[in-house]
Inverse folding.
């Protein structure tokens, strides 16, 4: 017999989460963030300008480490 609660939880929408860099901190406890794609959003929460954060359901949740990104083309 299948677990009905697990099946129900599986059909619920999953929260949207992404990594973004804070561009501007507003006085009303919101920030303008830039996604890795270049799009900008206004989200709830605050942090340091220029730092990367995990944003879940439009709320800043966790500070992310700043890592160096290398792009290389292999022929």
């Amino acid at each position: 017999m299948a677990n009905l609660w697990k099946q129900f939880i599986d059909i619920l929408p999953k929260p949207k989460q992404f990594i973004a860099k804070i561009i501007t901190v507003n006085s009303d406890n919101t920030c303008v963030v830039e996604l890795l794609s270049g799009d900008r959003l206004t989200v709830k929460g605050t942090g340091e300008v220029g730092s990367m954060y995990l944003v879940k359901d439009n709320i800043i949740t966790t500070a992310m480490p700043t890592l160096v990104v290398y792009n290389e083309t292999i022929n």
Summary: The mean pLDDT is 90. The radius of gyration is 17 Å. Helices lie at 4-11.
